[in-house]
Amino acid sequence: MRTTTARLVALGMVITACSGGTADTSSTTTTAEPTTTTSTSTTTSTTTTTTLPPTTTTTEPPGELSPINGLRVEDTTLLDRRVLAVKIDNHPRANPQTGIDEADMIIEVRVEGITRFLSIWHQSDIDELGPMRSGRPTDGSLLAGLNEPTFAISGAQDWIRSLIVEKDVNLIGETGSPATFRSSARSAPHNLYVNTFELRNVADGRGYSDEPPPHHIWEFGPMSDYAEPVSAVTLEFGSSVVTWTWNSGNEIWERTAYGDEGTYYDENGDEQRVEIPVLVVLDAESYTSSPSSGVSGSSVPSSRVTGSGNAYVFAGGTYSEGTWDRPSESEWFTLTDANGEVLLVPPGKVWVSIVPANQSISVEPR
Q1: What are phi and psi of 359, to 5 degrees?
Q2: Residues near 139 by Cβ (< 8 Å), separated by ≥ 6?
Q3: Is the CB of residue 346 less than 8 Å from the CB of residue 276?
Q4: Model-level pTM greater than 0.90?
Q5: Model confidence pLDDT, tens digit, residues 66-125
Q6: Which of 62, 127, 242, 349 would bridge with 2, disulfide CB 3.0–4.6 Å?
Q7: Residue 319 near residue 228, CB atoms below 8 Å
Q8: How far is Cα 244 from Cα 242, in angstroms, rounded to an integer?
Q9: First vs last C-alpha separation in the chain
Q10: Which of 188, 184, 140, 127 has the alpha carbon at shortest distance from 2?
Q11: In 3-state terms, what secondary structure has residue 219?
């Protein structure tokens, strides 16, 4: 398996998991009606802090840092190009996934009964990634903040595709080899894989924007000295439960999902444990998104990722909490701690979990 990743200096990540053509934007719209009045997520930790030390941002030259995860990039030409996102299947039959350990960031979002992943590729690429699955309204709302990115999906309902494209997100579906290909090792629909190098070529051929993100999406810096020690955090996505456990020996968060250790296939085809250095948890209101009256299609679960909510940052066996704010989809999330200061995200490949605000976020102190 061929991969291209600029040399990264700081925390790295080893992770696991978890379509067709350009969008038809003709005459379909969407309405989104909340189905749940959400409540504040809760944690089990009883320790509180009232004073935090002054925050300190990273001193690395911004032009040499990934705007997605804050890691230093040796080949800075890789930063002067589009963000590519690929939707990743997380059905039990799609596990272990392939290639997501090379992504610059993973965003986990709720779909029907389970979760799926948005894998984010900026300075990195890989020749086998998947399985790829279909898009949802939440995807477009999130990706709109990354400056006209290209988004690869296995498909979506017409009204959802139109909604995504309206947010200046450029779609690529199943194109056939070499950009997308089917694996004989799995049954459909869990067997569609992609080559991100070739997806970029497809995007170029269609004249899609190749502009990079306008700025760093997080404020990068160390965890506060007052961050609380924690051994595990458990997240509920509807009926799906995910636990991240701190491995103090390897100094990494390890994923458990579907009641078992999360794993992925590495470039040699070997099964590895999902591990991540930096976890950002954002709670968001759940609602049902539906096509407009008279437009065909079915309703789907979605997350409201503008406005504000609770935010948690986990790194180094500790966590800090605060709030997130996102006034519009063209912006990214701003994180603020309990004292109104910037809640810093340590440099390192980031896993972002968008958790329904009416469900539990349980933190186990250590």
Answers
A1: -120, 175
A2: 85, 87, 109, 118, 151, 153, 164, 169
A3: no
A4: no
A5: 999 999 999 999 999 999 999 999 999 999 999 999 999 999 999 999 999 999 999 999
A6: 127
A7: yes
A8: 7
A9: 39
A10: 127
A11: coil
